[in-house]
Amino acid sequence: MKVSIVTLHTDDKFILETLASVYKTVKTPFEYILVDNNKNKERLKQIQEKFPQVKIIKNPKNYGYARGINVGLQEAKGEYVLVLNPDIVVFEGTIDGMIQYMKNHNDIAVLGPKLLNADKSLQYSCRRYPDVKTMPFRRGPLKKWVTTSVAAYEMHDFDHKEVHDVDWLCGGFLLIKKEVFEKVGLMDEFYFLYLDDVDFCRRAHTIGRVTYFPEVEAIHSASYESKKRLFPFLIHIRSMVYYHLKFLFFPDFWLVKGKGWQSCNRDRNQ
User: Fold this and answer.
1) Main-chain dihedrals φ then ψ at residue 162, nearest 5 degrees
2) Using CA atoms, how far apart are residues 222 and 239, in angstroms rounded to an integer?
3) Does 267 have pLDDT greater than 60?
4) Which of 42, 109, 231, 253 has its CA 20 to 30 A from that of 209?
């Protein structure tokens, strides 16, 4: 198997479009692993009827994004793993082109395409590492006071038509060599939502390149829930605090529920 596509599904209205676009366009041999968070049984039934070839793993409850994705990653058999959000639509050549590019550039650990909004405008999906002063205000009522630093963080000054190594890529569409997980570990499960992608890319940098590849595109119909609702916003703040604690003070460790700070090299299966 060349590539394993892993998607975490909670209750996503675009999931059938995502699946249809993948099966319509991808020529490379692949398996599709869908981890279901047991939220919408009717939609899951639709998926099973329309795409019986999808391997479905049912979680008993919502474990959060990082842990949910890890469930699928542990079942992946491919040489490459594509972590794909359930709100992505790919075009002809998007995934095949990324696999070929990564195959031709063996030093790349993580590769991401140019992402577009639903209206085909550019989505800022490659970014610089977050800093303490920008992140707490970017989603809150004081965001107008940090417009300059947010623009720098989102790389508005960057030519998004050029292939370039970056700090991190949006976790909604990441092509990753399977061996990368063996060397730096899976997603850090202390992140329920948000910043797990920043964390993973930061670790991936220790063994290879993290590269923005705008020669292929995909549509990402992101909902940006932490901009709209209080609970996701608070989860985002929690993830920010943990991220900065981890990389400022405990760079070789992650926080495991009930166990405290554990070495990144330990087996974290729960």
Assistant:
1) -105, 140
2) 19
3) no
4) 253
Between β-strands 173-177 and 80-84, what pairing exists: parallel, antiparallel or unpaired? antiparallel
Is the CATH number of domain 3-263 3.90.550.10? yes
pLDDT over 80 (residue 233): no
How far is it, in rounded angstroms, from Cα 203 to Cα 185?
Answer: 9
Contact, 99 vs 162, CB < 8 A?
A: no
Separation CA 89–CA 105 (nearest Å): 25
Q: Determine if the pTM surpasses 0.85.
A: yes
Q: How far apart are the first and last CA of the chain?
A: 27
Contact by Cβ (8 Å): 121, 50: no
State the CB neighbour count (10 A cutoff) for residue 198: 23
Q: How far apart are CA 261 and CA 87, in angstroms?
A: 33
- Cβ atoms of residues 249 and 201 within 8 Å: no
- The DSSP 8-state label assigned to residue 145 in this structure reads G
> Where do the domains of the chain lie?
3-263
